[in-house]
Specification:
Strand content of chain B: 25-35%
Number of domains of chain B: 2
Shape of chain A: flat
Oligomer: heterotrimer
Shape of chain B: elongated
Structural class of chain A: mainly alpha
Largest interface: B-C, 80 and 82 residues
Largest sheet of chain A: none
Strand order of the largest sheet of chain B: 3-2-1-5-8
Distance between the termini of chain A: 29 Å
CATH architecture of the largest domain in chain B: Sandwich
Largest sheet of chain B: 5 strands, mixed
Chains: A mainly alpha, B alpha+beta, C mainly alpha
Helix content of chain B: 25-40%
Number of strands of chain A: 0
CATH topology of the largest domain in chain B: Immunoglobulin-like
Helix content of chain A: over 70%
Number of domains of chain A: 2
Number of strands of chain B: 10
Order of helices and strands of chain A: HHHH
Number of helices of chain B: 3
Radius of gyration of chain A: 21 Å
Order of helices and strands of chain B: HHEEEEEEEEEEH
C-alpha cells in the first residue's frame, strides 16, 4: 500500500486537474486528452497497488539478441509503408522470428531457475 | 468590457504588466544569485570536518511556499485583468479590416470602403489605419497557419485556415510599424512582412477614398 | 560514456541486457546525436551572424532548425534522461537488475533506429523534414511538405518516442518492485525520486505524440485527419500534450542529479528531502496541465486555466531552489567540476524559469510567443539548465561507470567556456526576440541592434562548441592515461558508491543497512 500511495495520489491529482479543465474549457478535446492520460496514471497506481513486493531472486538474461531483432523488425515494418511490400515481408518475417526466439529465451530462462 | 472605449492600446497594457514581471525577475534573480555566491564564499571547504546542521526546516519552508503561492496568485490576477482588456472585443463601431494570410503574403481588405491592399514579392503591403480608433480585425488563412504580429503593438494572433480569427486593436500613436508573420509557414516565411501605417483620421479618410 | 568495456565481445555489446550496458549505450549514441544536432546549430548561427543569406539557402536553413530541434528532443535529451535512470536507479535502490530487461533492450535499439530513420531524410529527393520540430498541421501535410523526408521524420519520431517509453516503463517498474530490503519509498535517493516523476510523465504523455504522429501519417497518405476547421488545433493539443511534459522529462533527472551532486560536495544530507519529494510529484502533475500555454496566441484555448497552472508551477520550482540552496548554506563546499556544473545549473536555469513565468502570462506571451525571446527562454532551461545538469552528472558519475577519473582542470575549463558561451548565446536572444525578431528565420533586418545581438549569439555558440571539444579531449586523455577512481572518490551518500567502479554485472556483493535516503552518509557519520 505504501508503495502505491504516491502513484495513486499522483493519479488523483491529475484527475482533479482534468476535472477543473472540464468545467473551465468550452472545447471538449483538451480535457478529453487529459482524462485519457489520467486514466493511464490510474493504471500505474493500480499496478503499484497489486504488485508491491519484489519478485523472488531471479536470474537476469545476460544476452538477448532476439530483442534487438524485434526492434529492427518494428522499424522495418514501419518503413515498409514508404519503401514497399518487400520490406513488409522481410520485417514481418523478422518479427515472427524475433518473437519465437524471445519465447525460447524466456522458456530456457525458466528452466534454469 | 463591451464598449468601444474599453478597447485598450495593447502596447501600454503590455508595458504596464511586463514592468511588474521584469521587476520581480530582477529581484528574484538578485536574491538567488546573492545567496548562491554567499554560500560558495562563506561555506567553502576548509577543513576535513563534516558540518552538522538540520536536514530540514519544515516551518520556514511552509511559510516560504505560502509566500510563493501568494506571489503566483498576484501575478495571475494581474494577468487576468490585463488579458480582459487586450482580449476585449468592441460591441460596435470602429474600422473593419479583413486579413487574408497565405504562403507567403498578406491581403488586407477594408469591407466598408471596398478597398484592398495586396502584397507581392516586390511590394511589401501596407495596412493604413486611423489613429486612436478601434480596429476590428477578421483574419483567415488560405493555406497553413500564419500569425499576424505587430511588434510595436506587442500583440500577435494566429490565422488559421477554414476558420475566422477576430480581434480588436487600437493604435494610439501615429507612425509606421513593421509587421511580421510569426508562425513558421514554410519556405519564404522569413520574407512575410507587412507595414502598419497609423495616420490621423482625416488622412485615413482621404486614403480610403484615393 | 563513449567507453566500450574491455573484453566485451561485439555481440555482448549489442545484445546485453545488463542495465548498465543499456544505459551507457543509450548515452553514447544520444551524445553522438548531440554532436550532430549541435553542429546544425553552428551552421545556423553562422548564417545568422550577419543580416542577409550567406551560408545556406532558406530551404536548407529550414531543414537545419527542424532537425536540430527534433534531434535534441527525440534523440538527445529524452534518451539521455532515461539513460541516467537506466544506469543509476538500480544501483541507487540496491537492485541487481532491472524489470523487463528485454523490453528495455528493444527500447534501447528503437531510439538509434529512429535517429537513423529521421536523419536519412537528407538523402531523399525533397530533403529532410522542414516543418519545424513541431510539424504543425497543415504545414506538414502532403501538399505543403511533399516527399519522404517528412514521412521519415514521422517514423523516426515514432520509433524514438516508443523507445524512450519502453525504457521508462522498465525504470519505473524497477523502482516499484526491485528495491533492496529497507529501501522504502521515503528512503529513495533524490535522483531516484526525480526518475519516478520523469517516468510518470513519459508514461502518461508520450502516447499523445505517438497518436499525433500516427494520425499525421494517415493524414498525409490516406485521409485528411487534420483537414477540417478544428484539425490544426487538434494536432497542436496532441503534440503539446507530449511537447510540454517532455521538457520536464528532460528537466527532472538533471535537477535530481544536481541535487545529489550538491549534497555530496557540500558534505550534507540533502536539505528538505520530504518537501522535495512532494514538490517533485506536484510539479509533475501540474506540468501535465500546462500544455496549451504554447497555444495562447491561437485564441482558441482556455487561456486562463493554462495561465493559472503555468504560473503556479513557480511554487514547486521555488521549493526545489530553497532545498538546493539550503543544502549549500551551512555545508562544506568543494568546487569540483561536477559542483561547478551543478551551480551553473542552479544559476542559469533560474533565468529560464523566470522568463518562463513571463511567457506563462497570455498578454505578455502575445508579444514574445514564436520569437527569439522564447528561443532564448527554452535554451536557458534546456541547454544552460538540463545539459549543465547532465555534465554535472557526467563529472560526478563517470568514475563510477568507468573506474577512471576525468581530468578536473579540463572539466573546469569546459565549465568556464560553457558558462560564458551559454550566456553570450542565449541572453542576446531574449533581447532580439523582445525587439521583434521572430524565430525560424534565416534572415533579418538590422533594426534595434539585431545585428549586434545575433553576432554575440554566434560568438557564444562557437564558445560552447569549443567547450564541447575540451570535453571530448578530456574523455580521450582520461582513457589514454587512466587515473583509477576507486569505489567512492567523492565520499558519496547513496548505494552506487558502495560497490566497485565499474560495478560488477550483478551490481552488489553485499549491501549496507539502509535507514535513510543517504545510507553511506549515515555510516560515515557513525564512524567519525
Amino acid at each position: 500500500m505504501k508503495v502505491a500511495l504516491p502513484f495513486v495520489a499522483w493519479a488523483a491529482l491529475l484527475t482533479v486537474l482534468a476535472a477543473v479543465l472540464w468545467v473551465w474549457s468550452s472545447d471538449h478535446v483538451p480535457p478529453a486528452i487529459f482524462t485519457a492520460a489520467a486514466s493511464v496514471a490510474w493504471c500505474v497506481g493500480l499496478y503499484a497497488l497489486l504488485r508491491p513486493f519484489p519478485r523472488a531472486v531471479r536470474r537476469a538474461p545476460d544476452l538477448s539478441l532476439a530483442s534487438g531483432l524485434v526492434a529492427l523488425a518494428i522499424a522495418m515494418l514501419l518503413l515498409s509503408a514508404l519503401v514497399g511490400e518487400w520490406l513488409l515481408l522481410i520485417g514481418g518475417g523478422a518479427l515472427v522470428a524475433g518473437l519465437v526466439w524471445l519465447a525460447r529465451e524466456l522458456r530456457a530462462e525458466r528452466r534454469v531457475r | 468590457m463591451a464598449g468601444a472605449l474599453a478597447i485598450a492600446d495593447t502596447r501600454s497594457q503590455f508595458t504596464d504588466l511586463f514592468s511588474v514581471y521584469q521587476w520581480l525577475t530582477v529581484v528574484v534573480a538578485g536574491i538567488v544569485f546573492g545567496l548562491v555566491l554567499f554560500a560558495l564564499v562563506r561555506y567553502r571547504r576548509r577543513g576535513n570536518e563534516y558540518p552538522r546542521g538540520k536536514d530540514k526546516h519544515t516551518v520556514a519552508e511552509s511559510i516560504y511556499a505560502l509566500v510563493l503561492t501568494a506571489i503566483a496568485i498576484t501575478l495571475v490576477t494581474l494577468t487576468f485583468r490585463t488579458e480582459d482588456k487586450t482580449d476585449a472585443v468592441a460591441a460596435n463601431g470602429g474600422v473593419r479590416v479583413d486579413i487574408v494570410a497565405f504562403q507567403w503574403q498578406w491581403r488586407f481588405g477594408y469591407p466598408d470602403y471596398g478597398k484592398t491592399v495586396l502584397g507581392t514579392t516586390e511590394h511589401v503591403p501596407t495596412m493604413v489605419l486611423p489613429v486612436g480608433t478601434v480596429v476590428r480585425f477578421d483574419g483567415i488563412s488560405r493555406d497553413v497557419i500564419h500569425s499576424f504580429w505587430v511588434p510595436a503593438a506587442r500583440f500577435k494572433r494566429d490565422e488559421f485556415p477554414k476558420r475566422h480569427t477576430k480581434f480588436d486593436l487600437r493604435f494610439d500613436r501615429v507612425g509606421t510599424y513593421i509587421g511580421r508573420c510569426a508562425e513558421f509557414c514554410g519556405l519564404r516565411h522569413t520574407n512575410m512582412d507587412f507595414y502598419v501605417r497609423v495616420v490621423p483620421r482625416d488622412a485615413f479618410q482621404r486614403w480610403v477614398k484615393s | 560514456m563513449l567507453v566500450v568495456p574491455r573484453r566485451a565481445s561485439l555481440i555482448g555489446w549489442v545484445g546485453s541486457t545488463d542495465h548498465k550496458r543499456i544505459g551507457v549505450r543509450v548515452a553514447t549514441y544520444a551524445f553522438g546525436f548531440f554532436l550532430l544536432s549541435g553542429a546544425f546549430a553552428l551552421v545556423m548561427r553562422t548564417e545568422l551572424a550577419r543580416p542577409g543569406l550567406q551560408v545556406v539557402s532558406e530551404n536548407t536553413y529550414n531543414e537545419l532548425f527542424t532537425m536540430h530541434g527534433s534531434g535534441m528532443f527525440f534523440l538527445v535529451m529524452a534518451p539521455l534522461a532515461l539513460a541516467l535512470g537506466m544506469y543509476f536507479v538500480p544501483l541507487q535502490i540496491g537492485a541487481s537488475d532491472i524489470a523487463w530487461p528485454r523490453l528495455a533492450l528493444i527500447g534501447d535499439w528503437l531510439i538509434p533506429l529512429g535517429g537513423v530513420t529521421m536523419f536519412s531524410g537528407f538523402l531523399t529527393d525533397h530533403g529532410a523534414a522542414k516543418a519545424g520540430w513541431t510539424a504543425f498541421a497543415p504545414l506538414s501535410d502532403i501538399d505543403r511538405s511533399p516527399g519522404y523526408g517528412m514521412d521519415l521524420w514521422i517514423f523516426g519520431g515514432l520509433l524514438a518516442t516508443a523507445g524512450v517509453l519502453l525504457l521508462a516503463i522498465s525504470v519505473l517498474t524497477t523502482i516499484v518492485r526491485f528495491r533492496a530490503p529497507g529501501m522504502t519509498m521515503l528512503r529513495l535517493p533524490v535522483f531516484t525520486w526525480s526518475m519516478v516523476a520523469t517516468c510518470l510523465l513519459v508514461i502518461t504523455s508520450f502516447p499523445a505524440l505517438i497518436v499525433a504522429l500516427s494520425l499525421l501519417f494517415v493524414d498525409r497518405h490516406f485521409s485528411g485527419v487534420y483537414e477540417g476547421a478544428s484539425g490544426p488545433v487538434l494536432y497542436q493539443h496532441l503534440f503539446w500534450f507530449y511537447g510540454h511534459p517532455v521538457v520536464y522529462v528532460i528537466f527532472f533527472p538533471f535537477i535530481g542529479a544536481v541535487a545529489e551532486v550538491v549534497a555530496v560536495f557540500s558534505r550534507r544530507r540533502f536539505f528538505g528531502y520530504h518537501a522535495l519529494v512532494l514538490s517533485l510529484l506536484v510539479f509533475a502533475a501540474l506540468s501535465m496541465s500546462v500544455w496549451a500555454h504554447h497555444m495562447f496566441a491561437t485564441g482558441r484555448v482556455t487561456n486562463q486555466y493554462f495561465a493559472l497552472t503555468s504560473t503556479i508551477l513557480l511554487v514547486p520550482a521555488g521549493v526545489e531552489y530553497f532545498d538546493l540552496i539550503g543544502t549549500m548554506i551551512g555545508g562544506s563546499i568543494l568546487l569540483s567540476s561536477a559542483m561547478l556544473f551543478a551551480v551553473g545549473f542552479i544559476v542559469l536555469f533560474l533565468i529560464g524559469g523566470l522568463t518562463g513565468i513571463i511567457v506563462a502570462s497570455p498578454p505578455l506571451d502575445y508579444h514574445v510567443h514564436d520569437t527569439y525571446f522564447v528561443v532564448g527562454h527554452f535554451h536557458y532551461t534546456i541547454f544552460a539548465g538540463s545539459l549543465f545538469g547532465f555534465f554535472a552528472a557526467v563529472y560526478y558519475w563517470y568514475p563510477k561507470v568507468t573506474g577512471r577519473m576525468l581530468r578536473e582542470r579540463l572539466g573546469k575549463l569546459q565549465f568556464v567556456l560553457y558558462f560564458l558561451g551559454a550566456n553570450l548565446t542565449f541572453f542576446p536572444m531574449l533581447v532580439s526576440g523582445y525587439e521583434g525578431m521572430p524565430r525560424r528565420v534565416a534572415d533579418y533586418e538590422n533594426i534595434h541592434d539585431l545585428s549586434l545581438m545575433n553576432m554575440l549569439s554566434t560568438i557564444g555558440a562557437f564558445t560552447i562548441a569549443l567547450g564541447t571539444l575540451v570535453f571530448l579531449w578530456n574523455l580521450r586523455v582520461s582513457s589514454r592515461k587512466p587515473v583509477p577512481a576507486g569505489n567512492d572518490p567523492w565520499q558519496g551518500h547513496t548505494l552506487e558508491w558502495w560497490t566497485t567502479s565499474p560495478p560488477p554485472p550483478h551490481n552488489f556483493d553485499s549491501l549496507p543497512p539502509v535507514r535513510s535516503y543517504s545510507p553511506l552518509y549515515d555510516r560515515r557519520l557513525g564512524e567519525s
